[in-house]
Each structure stands twice: as structure tokens, then as C-alpha cells.
Amino acid sequence: MSVLFAFAFAVLFSFVGVLPPGIVNMTVANYSVKKSLKRARKFINGAILVVFIQSILAFYFATFLESHPQVTQNLKLVGSVVFILLTVFFLGKGIQNFIDSKGEIKKKATKSKLKPFLHGIFISGLNVFPIPYYAFVSLYLSAFIEDFFTNLVGLAFVVGTTLGTFVVFMGYAYLFRTIKHKVTFFIKNINFIIAIITGLIAVFTIYNLNK
Question: CA 172 to CA 178: how far, in whole Å?
Fold first, then answer.
């Protein structure tokens, strides 16, 4: 019963945590709209591999986070720096694309140096927030699932978080692919949208560093 509860709640919490627009979600949507569902799925597979590993780390971190609050603090600090850098990066790309669209700079289209699967690993790996988030969820679930910190229940939790995340990513891919003709603004301004999201996350994290 504990395994079932851990799996079900992991799916629920991962679904809720990943559903709001984020850098990985928006990149999935970008692949789906600008390229193809096949490439979007490959990106998702790479991202999900990282989520699986992050969930395992989070589960084991949860066993000592209560007695080591500085760990969470350090994760917040690292996360804020990463998202500040990402904000600058995507703002730069957005400005460059805007100038290119105006015809002021003409360049030949270049392909990404990273394949979709590796790109998924890279982008998902930059997002360190799943680790403290799932660690917190683990601590929360352990309060009413007595044998939560056992290998079998832990495996159910990790599989649940991975499955829930996968469902959300696939939902983004199919939804944006379906309405791609109605999202012209999104297509033209994807880099600015991602920059706004990462910037807000960075500000929120910095604000909460001392809490």
C-alpha cells in the first residue's frame, strides 16, 4: 500500500510542479512547433533521464535535509545563478532573432550543435530546482507514509515523479503542435518568453535565499 501511495502522490506532485510554464516546457513546445514531434520526443527523453536522476538524488537528500538546512540554501544560490545566466542568454538570442527578422543582419541558418536528446539533457540539467522540490515532497510524504524511506517505496516515488513529468512534457508537445497556427506570437518571441520565465525564477529564488 505504501508503494502505491508513494507512486500516486509522486505523479500528482510532479504534475503540479512541472505543469506551470518553465524553461524545459517551453523548449519542448519550441521543438514541437518549429521542428517536429519526433524531435520534441527525443528532447523529452533526454530531459526525462535527468529528471529520473534528480529524483533519486532528491530522495536521498531528504534523509538529511532537516538537519542540514544549509544544503537547501546552497541549492537555491546555485539555482539563482544558473537562471540569471540563462536569462541573459535567451535575451541575447531573442534580440538577435528580432534583428534578423528585420533584415538588419542576414545570416545563413545554422543547426544546433546539440542533438535533441543531448539538448534535453543539457537544458534539464541546468534546472536544479527539481532536487530541492522533490526532496521537500519526500519529507512531506514521509510524515504519513511510515516506511517511506525504504528502497522499494523510494523506487515507486522516483518512477512516479518521472512518469508525471513525462506526461506534462508530452502534453506541452502535442498541445502546442495542435495549435501551432494560432501561436504566431509565441513562435516569434519564444526566447523572450523563456528569458522572462527564467528571470522571474531567479528573482524569486534570490528573494527567498534568506528564508
Answer: 10
| HEC string for the chain | CHHHHHHHHHHHHHHHHHCCCCHHHHHHHHHHHHCCHHHHHHHHHHHHHHHHHHHHHHHHHCCCCCCCHHHHHHHHHHHHHHHHHHHHHHHHHHHHHHHHHCCCCCCCCCCCCCCHHHHHHHHHHHCCCHHHHHHHHHHHHHCCCCCCCCHHHHHHHHHHHHHHHHHHHHHHHHHHHHCHHHCHHHHHCHHHHHHHHHHHHHHHHHHCCCC
| Cα torsion angle, 90, 95, 96, 97, sign | positive
CA-CA-CA-CA torsion for 109, 115, 116, 119, nearest 10 degrees? -100
What are the tens digits of pLDDT across the range 149-199?
Answer: 888 999 999 999 999 999 999 998 988 888 766 666 666 666 677 677 767
pTM summary value = 0.69
- Helical packing angle, 37-61 and 23-34, nearest 10°: 170
How far is Cα 41 from Cα 61, in angstroms, rounded to an integer?
A: 30
